[in-house]
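Record format v2
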Amino acid sequence: MEEKTESHNTTAEMTDEIPRLGMTKKSLKHLKSTSKWLNFFAILSYIGMFFLIITAIAALFRQDDKMIDATMFARIFSCICYLVIAAVYYFLGRFLFRSSTYYNEAAILDTNESFEDANKYKLLFWKYYGILTIISLASILLLIILLLLVIPGL
Amino acid sequence: MEERTIVEVADNSDPIKLSENNISYLQKSSKWMRFIGDFYFFTALIVLIIALAVLVFDYFPFPQYILNNGPVMLTSICIVYMVIAVLYCLFGVYLLCAAKYFIKAINDKTALSMEKALYAEKRYWKFTGIFTMVALGITLLLLIGSVAFTL
């Protein structure tokens, strides 16, 4: 009985010490569920990164009879390109994984700190994704313009 | 268990105690989410234009074996493009919904509006996750099929 009272007091103290966000039970359930999906995407990103690194290594050591010595530069260039894309995947995975971890923490603790960390990484992820989108769009546009300039009859 | 007891006390109409940092992060991420959502719609539009171009002009730089198979093949390709466009639209709708609800949650600062925002976000990730799993499954099947066909 004494133990129970003690435990109750500790809970009360905890409630006083750590200010809760005051989210509903359903909200915490949604946070937990989102955390799982974010984790899934983080794992996929890391798998993608792993395959890209393998492709980069394969591109560097590819044995092709048709290739002459001059294409060594092309090999290194393609390897670097794959590694750059692998780095892009790494950061995507990292932001997603961190976001997932803090979402899970927020679902358990329901504190401002944990929710703040989750939102910080969520912002980083969307910002990163947005900048990548802008870069891709600009590259496509630049490629189209270059093609039109190089091949006027296109 | 103790935490659950505390959480159950929170009611839908209760105010939510969001910190300044939280509000700032949510506002900024909502803007980026809106941008990506709009980009999904833009992509859907491009894909739809390609689908219509396939159908209307009856020609597209496809391999000769596709063009030889006539209108049935082209119509099938057009339908596939349209399905992709619809999927992109759905991605956009879910993401824009989530962004809109987060902005609403920041303004209202109630537990209910935050619940709606988190539900919208979960819905987007769930949809994207299921779509990714289906796409990966189809790719794997095609890969196995092509390997089996070659052998």
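Chain A touches chain B at residues 7, 11, 14-15, 19-28, 30-31, 33-34, 37-38, 40-41, 44, 108-110, 112, 115-116, 119-120, 122-123, 126-127, 129-130, 133, 137 (CB under 8 Å).
The helical segments of chain A are 2-17, 25-60, 72-109, 112-150.
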